[in-house]
Amino acid sequence: MRSVAPINPQKKEGDPNCVKESDYYEGERLIHLLGLIQRGIETSKLLNVNSLPEKIWLKQQIAIGINEVTRVLERMKANTRDQQQQNPRQPPVQLQVVIVVADCKPRMLTKHIPNLAASRNVPVLYIRDNRRASLRLGELVKLKTALAIGVKARGNDLNQLLQQEIVPRDS
């Protein structure tokens, strides 16, 4: 019997949404990114004048989970002119960046997020850490696990730190 190599749909040649090995945050890069986000959350929290409870404040800054990230992305304007004319009102929430666990099983859970984010010009960062990435992402948002989070564009310290991290990768 002839063996056939498995085809990875994420690695098609010429696909603009193709995920390259360099697009993943793992190892030292992952530790740096998570530390950066943690510092941004802590700094923004300290500057919080309203003194909201931590969970409420966190929900205002970050879309937590696959469903919430998808919901926020769907409410954002798409890049196409036809869709912008249909929904002229700007949504109240914009995402600055989406962070997705790359090694989740089944992959189908997060498969739609990169295309949806690309249609809204939102960068996607993929993290993986030997099946522990969801635990590490969950720690950031005070949950056991998280497969996806979206950082809302609020103009706070977290947004400024992430902007400095994302811009060098795009150029």
From TrEMBL:
InterPro entries: Ribosomal_eL30-like_sf (IPR029064), Ribosomal_eL8/eL30/eS12/Gad45 (IPR004038). The lineage of its organism: Eukaryota, Viridiplantae, Streptophyta, Embryophyta, Tracheophyta. It comes from the Eukaryota. Gene3D superfamilies: 3.30.1330.30. Residues 95-151 form the Ribosomal protein eL8/eL30/eS12/Gadd45 domain. This is Ribosomal protein eL8/eL30/eS12/Gadd45 domain-containing protein. It holds the Pfam family Ribosomal_L7Ae.
